[in-house]
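Sample intake — Histidinol-phosphate aminotransferase
Collected from: Variovorax soli
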Amino acid sequence: MTMILLASNENPLGMPESARRAAAAALPGAGRYPDSNGTALKHALSARLDVPADWLVLGSGSSEILELAAQARVMPGEHVVYSQYGFVVYGQVAGQVHARSTAVPARDFGHDLDAMRAAIGEDTRLVFVANPNNPTGTFIEAGPLLAFLESVPPQVTVLLDEAYGEYLSPAQRYDSIAWVRRFPNLVVARTFSKAYGLAGLRIGYGVAQHGLAGRLNAQRPRFNVSTPAQAAALAALNDGAFLARSYQLNTAGRARLAAGLHELRLASIPSAGNFLMVQVGEGRTVHARLLAAGIEVALLDNYGLPHWLRITVGLPEQNEAVLAALRDLAPAR
């Protein structure tokens, strides 16, 4: 039985052919160390984002950007703030640098920015904000988010995690890079793992002003991004047709999943990402039954959400398969 993998928010289209060709073409040079500065990719990102190349930090996925921010900005015993249902890695990286951390109670499963601002104290050094948020899919409008950034003391770094930003609708999109130009304490983290389809190659990047980017780069392992990953990311960055197809597939698939879950009388949270969080009752029981039916989705016990599962938006036939399986499992809920 071939498993339907809907647990890790990967792009169901897989890797774009342009990136596949570029990675293959780069393999003959993989006997040598990669370009530690990621010169070609940074040049392309610099032109695309209209920022200096030294404002860029390459990471092994955007998760490494989160780690670098904690390593660069937080000393043992200092304070990190994030939302209750923020990405699980935020708490993990706070632990890695032996920081105190506060998971601020969520508001409607999303960020309570007022409460997060109130949680910032004299020893707070880093605040994580995900937009859209994983695993809940919640989204913060530009106005409240900008007001929050304006309220944060300058000695506190804010990391704005935009791993799912390419899935935002046109009405939701905002220019966070303009905010980087304005706020020297802001890092925007992005990834090629999701909409660009390069999850297995592990490549992402951060954008921050020169001083803060320099501190992150000082923590960065020298050869943290491989030669094929850099080549594939450069190709994917320039493959607008693939990105548009990914966006359209996700928008339609997410709407279909949400409608299907509603028909099954399963509550889900409106999502701005490429996944839906759905309330199923006994999460582990339903998860096990779905696995037995050949479908893998994500448990959310580690978020304190044992009655919920997260379902990645898949190809149309995969979305129908998970809806059919949930329909068949109705008595188990």
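Post-analysis note: The first helix runs from residue 17 to 26.
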